[in-house]
């Protein structure tokens, strides 16, 4: 074990939040120029808490998660500022070997497309068992026994008979369960789920979300749920961080956010959900296109698409204004948004 | 898989019949009389020519000759060549040497080609990558006989590290440089194929997963990345075993190795079909069997492949 996992900052002895991302900046250096993917993201997760990170493609939500995991391709990616503290230790400053040991043991990740994320040429049981063999030095037979237990735990029917099957022999939902089994194998404190249900049928989506919620309750781990689907997060999340153009534009406890959104973007997202009581009416859509990361709009990145726009929105970058203890909105005119006047 | 193998083996029969018939037919259709020039300065007497034609059945129709050839192949009795030396003993002397040369060449291809490909693929644009790209381009653009004569002259004559020609018993140590020459083209191709495969798979999702699992870099590359990247490379190496054997003709000529290449060359110039036909047929068989083995190996390497 390394110092990060035991010693003065070991499990439970640190008083701050379990995982804190602070003012993180990530850039990609491409042939076309510098793409600013993450521009000062700050969030935190505590044991047993679920943070939903909401945003469209290119909002920086996945890049933030990949930076936490340390699986960002560098180059072209580059962390240009900020800290990621796990139990109070800035893991961005740790040597690679210590970071490697945190992966799987401390922080784990579930990916979107389990078919391509699982190795096609190894049996699923072998891939789960690898966690125990590498991190814990378990014997092959012990590790395999634990793999079967985990497959049972994520409710794969007939786990014992299927442990030697290959990923392509499973359905999409079952494959995602195997990914989850692999991620929770070592009982991590933080689980990052990057769009875990996007590639699945709606009925299977609900099962997977339910499974994640159950597993979290049993083990009291912190869950970061990355999604672009507002409907998925309502039941399971405790708090939500809405991202746009590499920034957090609104953060709030989940029910407050649904009841009274305090940022025009969040409000637009909520209004563009189809509702049964408004059947027959034209569906609302946020005008314009997501920002080009190579040429970010000046001032507030959302201002070209914003119905509340004033002149100063194009020049002054809005900070995350505190609304109440746990809420914040990065809009100069959040009061108007909350009041509903447009 | 068992049924698939049996079906594939049964498929070999018509292919073998067809190819061996074509070999027989074409060889007997070649212009010139094989016996006319065997009596020094003067033309051979008619009595000799007709006696020889009768002995080797050249006066019979082609179908009958082919039937005789099949019977001989199946019984293992290939008779004697035009000099009345048993064909089987000549083949038995030559085959082991060529097989040794070919296996050594495959080993060189695999070890050097794959290592070079992996190293250059992992650090694309780095120093090793440039060295590998340039040297493989060099090897690919040189014909085998140029590489062969060059190495023979350089290592054998100038620096005298090796003996320029291989002795009759063809010990492994003397075969290393000839095997390298024989392997050179395929080795360069193997390196490039491996490099492409590594580059392609390095950014794949399952490699990212392997990193996210907290595996050591050595394990991510050595187990997860390599296992997937080597599937096309091993298939290539397997299918090339057959062509390696026939390609040995040039290399064996340069280094004076008494394998089937040399035997085949002498038999062709002497128009001795009793040797040309069995060797060509055996080369076909080697090619077919190695292809079958590769197809079966493919299913072992990639579980997504289904045999029905």
Task: Describe this protein's structure.
The complex is a heterodimer of chains A (342) and B (308). Chain A is an alpha/beta fold and 342 residues long. Chain A has a domain at 263-342. Chain A is 32% helix and 23% strand. Chain A has helices at 61-69, 96-105, 114-117, 124-135, 140-153, 159-162, 172-184, 202-219, 230-233, 254-259, 264-271, 334-339, and strands at 19-30, 33-45, 50-54, 77-86, 89-90, 107-110, 190-194, 222-227, 239-244, 247-253, 321-324, 327-329. In chain A, the strands form two sheets. Chain A has an eight-stranded mixed beta sheet with strand order 6-7-8-3-9-10-12-11, sandwiched between helices. A four-stranded antiparallel beta sheet of chain A has the order 2-1-4-5, with helices on one face. Chain A is globular, with a radius of gyration of 21 Å. In chain A, 44% of the residues are buried. Helix content of chain B is 76%, strand content 0%. Chain B has eleven helices and no strands. The A-B interface holds A 69-71, 73, 100-105, 108-109, 111, 113, 116-122, 130-131, 134-135, 166, 168, 179, 182 and B 203-206, 208-216, 219, 224, 227-228, 231, 301-304.
